[in-house]
Specification:
binds NADPH dihydro-nicotinamide-adenine-dinucleotide phosphate; 265 residues; 3-stranded parallel β-sheet; alpha/beta; Rossmann fold
Length: 265
């Protein structure tokens, strides 16, 4: 039976380090959070971020902008935050209303204040979780399912830096009917797709470490992409969903903010 690889204990350690860093800064770092419109998902992220910021001595400044703001207006707003010296970091809450191009707008955030891109939060959270197991990734067979810009691709590079042998699966792997064969040989499996039950528990190699990044709502429950009950019988470690990768990403965002504030000092 697998050990549960929970995000909270790892997040607590990171938060303790952040508190010390905030103390050594001598003032509260300022995080500007830009929320456009009234998306309930984005509002939930904001509440979670506000809570952790308060706990860590970080000044969280929420800017709520109207749903119908034109792209140029939003970019101008961000440029003002770029120029606002006391602001150390800027986050643009997702999802944005349909008429706004995330890539274009996020590129207007000054690199030194772009705390989401500094050390990408979710891939870093996955690396922290793997680190907490004590596994040496050198030469390990790691299979990632999903190759998105925010998870799969940056994670591939982080794993290569550790000399893991990395296979990246995506939609074409599934269409070719070869997802199962790759998953079956994974010593470390990381899944970031967003499809409940995509990865069958029976596919998990005995003793594998399973990190499930996926978040899916199924009949009022949040589940990952891996069939948890069957997978936990075979894995050595497995992340719960919720409670795995999720709680760590906000802690890493705050760590990036403090690092940005230090660099700006
Ligand atoms: P994207 O939709 O951007 O990417 C999904 C990826 O899965 C794509 O690379 C896609 O390939 C691939 N894919 C789709 N269907 C299949 C399939 N049948 N077989 C294999 N690969 C497939 O999603 P994100 O990366 O943004 O997020 C993935 C999941 O992780 C979501 O559930 C999201 O909610 C969750 N998430 C969780 C976070 C956390 O902190 N816990 C943070 C970020 C995301 P292709 O592009 O080629 O179609």
């Amino acid at each position: 039976m697998a050990k549960l690889l929970e995000g909270r204990p790892v997040a607590e350690k990171i938060k303790a380090q952040i508190k010390l860093s905030v103390q050594s800064l001598g003032r509260a770092p300022v995080l500007a959070s830009v929320l456009v419109g009234a998306n309930p998902g984005a509002a939930a992220y904001v509440r979670a971020q506000e809570k952790i910021a308060l706990e860590l001595g970080i000044a969280y400044k929420l800017h709520q902008l109207p749903e119908n703001i034109p792209e140029g207006g939003l970019i101008d707003f961000i440029l003002k935050l770029n120029a606002d010296k006391p602001v150390n970091g800027i986050i643009l809450q997702m999802p944005l209303p349909q008429h706004l191009d995330y890539k274009k707008i996020s590129e207007s955030i000054a690199p030194k204040k772009d705390i989401e891109s500094m050390h990408p939060c979710t891939p870093t959270a996955v690396m922290e979780l793997l680190g907490s197991t004590g596994i040496d990734l050198y030469g390990k067979e790691v299979v990632i399912v999903g190759h998105s810009q925010i998870v799969g691709k940056p994670l591939t590079l982080l794993l290569l830096e550790k000399f893991a042998t990395v296979t990246v699966c995506h939609i074409a792997t599934s269409k070719a009917g070869r997802l199962e064969e790759h998953v079956r040989r994974a010593e470390v499996l990381i899944v970031a797709v967003g499809q409940a039950g995509l990865i069958k528990g029976q596919w998990i190699k005995e003793g594998a470490i399973v990190i499930d990044v996926g978040i899916n709502r199924v009949a009022d429950k949040i589940v990952g992409d891996v069939e948890f009950e069957a997978a936990e019988k075979r894995a050595s470690y497995i992340t719960p969903v919720p409670g795995g990768v999720g709680p760590l990403t906000t802690a890493i965002l705050m760590r990036n903010l403090v690092e940005a504030a230090k660099l700006q000092q």
